[in-house]
Amino acid sequence: MRFPILLASLCAGFLGLQPLAAGEVATKEIVETQAEPAPKDWGFTLALYSWVPAVDGKVGIGRLTANTHVSMKQVIERLDMAYMGYLEARYQRWGLGVDALYSEFSGSAGYHYGPLSGSLKVKLTQVMVTPRVFYRVVDLPAVSLDLLAGFRWTSLSTDMDLYGKLDFKNPYLAPFNREFHRHNHESRGWVDPIFGLRGVANLTSRWYLNVEGDIGGFGVSSKLTWQAMGGIGFRFTEHVSAYAAYRALGLDYDRKGLKIDTVSHGPLLALVFSF
Are 232 and 204 spatial neighbours (Cβ–Cβ below 8 Å)? Predict the structure, then answer.
C-alpha cells in the first residue's frame, strides 16, 4: 500500500500540488465508506391476484356423497364476486404475511315431475384467510429460502331456496294445488395449523422464480390441508412486478356431517407492489 501513496506524492510534486498524508487518505476513505446507504431493515409487499381454479374430488352432506368436477369455465360462469390479495411485512429476516380470499358462487336448476315443478337456487360463500410468520434461513442476492408457520381459517356458508308448485289438472285434485318455498342456511368454519417453505431465485435483475408450499390440518380440524404454487415473475420497476403461477389447494375435511375431499387447481395472475 506504500507504493501507490508514494507514487501519488511524486505525481503531486511534479504538478505543484500539496500531497495528502497517509492518515488523511485513510480518513477520507472511511468517510466515503460511511456515506454508503445501509440496507433497509423494513420491507412491505402487497399483491392483488386472480385465481381461477377447477375443483375435483368428493363432497358429501350426511350420508349423501357425490363426486365433484367443476371446470374453470363453470367456475367463471357461476362466480358472482371475488376478492383476493396478499399483504406482507418484513423486518430483517423475520416477516408476517396474510393471504385472504373471498368468493361468492350461485347457480340454479329447474325440475318437473308430473304435477310438481319448480326450481332450486344455491348460493355458496367461501372465505379463506391464512396468516403466517416466516424466518429467512437463506438470504443471498440470487436465492432466498423462508420457513413458514401459521394457520388457515376456512369458512363456508350455503343458502338454498327451493321453489315449487303443485298443479293437478284433475278437478277432483285441484284443491291440493299450492305453491311453496323452503329456505335453508348452513355455515361452518374451522382453523388448521400449517407449516411450509418458500423459495425465490433471481434469474436476472428483472426475472425471478417463486416456489412455495405448505401442509397442515393433522386432525386438529381437517384431516389434511395443503397448498403448492410455483411461477415466474417480471419486475417492471423496483417497486412493481407481475407474477404468473399455477396454484393447487387440497382439503380433506370430515366433521359433523360435512365431507369435503377436494383439490382446487388453476392459474394465478398477480400484480405485486414492493416497498
Answer: no
